[in-house]
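To whoever picks this up:

The nightly regression suite flagged Acetolactate synthase-1/2/3 large subunit as changed. Nothing in the input moved, so I suspect the structure step. Input below, exactly as stored in the fixture:
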Amino acid sequence: MKASDLFVQCLEEEGIEYIFGVPGEENADFVMSLNQSGKIRFILTRHEQGAAFMAEVYGRLTGHTAGCLGTLGPGATNLLTGVGNGNMDLAPMLVLAGQGSSKRLHKESHQIMDAVSMFRPVTKWAETIRHPDNIPEMVRKAVRLARSEKPGAVFLELCEDIATLESDARPLSVRRYPRPMPEPESLEQACAMIRKAKRPVIIAGNGVIRMNASDSLRRLAELTGIGVISTFMAKGCVDVDADYCLYTIGLGRKDLVACAVDAADLVITLGYDLVEYHPHLWNPAADKSILHLDSTPAEIDACYHPELELIGDIGHSLDAIAGRLSEGSLPRFDLKQQQAVRRDMTADLEAHKADDTEGFIRPQKALWDVRQVLPADGLLLSDVGAHKMWIARHYHCHEPNTCLVPNGFCSMGFALPGAIAASLIHPGRQVLAICGDGGFMMNVQEMETARRYDCNLTVMVWEDKEYGLIAWKQTDHFGDHTPLSFGNPDWMKLAESFGWQGHSVENSRDLQQTLITALNEEGPSLVVIPIDYRENLILSARLGEIACPI
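Regenerated output under the current build:
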């Protein structure tokens, strides 16, 4: 069969459901073959970067692999930022690009560049398909690598002349393998460390979400009462309403939650990736006793040197520990510091719920209202900017994987295309993206994609008419900031021109009802609010003054 047909059949065998992207001349044979597939849905996007963000969100929400597609040259370079974002946030992704004829790769030629070398720093594996018979092996390897811990992006390019050749090869069947289990001796050592501790605390990371270990974590926390702090990317791993939920950690300055870590004599990390929140921020003296539970060994770092590493399936490890602890009398921990942290943080989160400001809306009030109107399974996607810091601190979840925050690569422009993917994957759930006006305009063209596919989603834009996070950081550090202001479109006309519903909210009292209206409208809706970023420096000052009681 034709190589491009074989490629598509291999992707079908892998269970690929979606490919997001932009066709071009050099991937035309592949796209025509893809058009004949009855199993893979191709989503035409308005920019390759948006396609990569969509593939990332598919991977994060499902744990499976989707594709993002570009042609050679500028099509491939346009994919790069979104691929870097997904790879650093450990989303399984299959990155596909066309390439010019293999007869001209060795010389100066139209749009030819070494895309494989470009993608290698931001993928787990990048390679050119050099012969049609290699396609089954390479697709099988690519998808397996993308999904294996720690997951990430893989890149394959197909030359236009190779795509037209004939092959007698056939797709390889998919073989799954179980995750390794920890050794019984290591489990006993872990239980001994927990029994010995007086003030243990848990830091839960991205791996808890990726490996569906939330139920096991909740059972252990309910059994022992040990407090659970989540990273930004582990929001919802425990229910925000649970007494043992200590909210999130990850801001650059010391927050109330850090007091629980300061007081701990044992830090149990679960699926924690150092890129989520560097250990020098929570263990600066490198003196914490650390128990590392993950599917892979710990990254080497002077401030993260675990006494014990329990390597294997996280959920199985947690269940095994809970079983062993319950066999005897449960340890009696001193959790007064953790209880104080939860009490003080809860009061902080509720402080502005009754705000009635006019002309500006405080971030705390906006997020309080969002939490009130989004159901437990509603999906919130954060873009990157000052609003991300507020979402990290003030928006908390009932269910795992219901708040997606870009955290490693931190690319602006993520949330709008990400919300499109979320709405396609979960058409029955409410989807809300929160963007700054800077980040939203970076992929504003995908408003047309959302309308074309009749996506039920809402985007809330926090308008401050400048790059607010940079202004915040520069002012914190230098006492002033460089020129960062810009103009914006007429938001309601913009929404109308793309066929979206549009809402502008000036006063705090009107926000909650407007959000309810927007979330229940058919098709995409835009809500724009004037955000009161004077609160940024107020928060910075407060965090800088936090002192934990001894």
